[in-house]
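Hey, sorry to bother you again with one of my protein questions. A protein chain has come my way and I'm curious about its shape. I'm sending you its amino acid sequence along with the backbone structure tokens. I owe you a coffee for this, so here goes:
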Amino acid sequence: MRRRNFIKATVGAVIAWPLMARAQTRRIGVLMNLAADDPQSAKEISAFLDGLQERGWTPGGNLQIEYRWGAGDHELDRKYAPELVAFAPDVLLVAGGTTVGLLQNLTRTVPIVFVEVTDPVNRGLVASLAQPVAILPDLPSLNSALLGNGWNCSNRSRQT
């Protein structure tokens, strides 16, 4: 249940920015480290979609989501990462640490939100856990205060 709450809270970090453009369709690229038919995938995507819907986002309505399933295969990750960047998402959601680095090498303009990453500081993904948005070097279109609130929400959910 804690993992589900964490995933739902992470949605806040992913989706917090667009209050000023409610009518506009937003795009999210999702790269999962599981297979599409893995039972855990269904649970995680369900939690993700629940969190989006709680915040007024409807896939196929005001939100377009493009999924890729790496299934723990680094070759698939290398194939799918450029596809997701080409999708021109407003934000990327990534499960797994090795994939974050791939995406960082492909884009410095699309925000990358990651989950299920062990020790992101030592991996060089963020400067510190106190400043987790350091992974996002250029956020001209994001309201960083809102993104920060989303991260605070994520941090609280991990403690429960």
Remarks:
- The helical segments are 2-15, 39-54, 74-86, 97-106, 144-159.
- The radius of gyration is 14 Å.
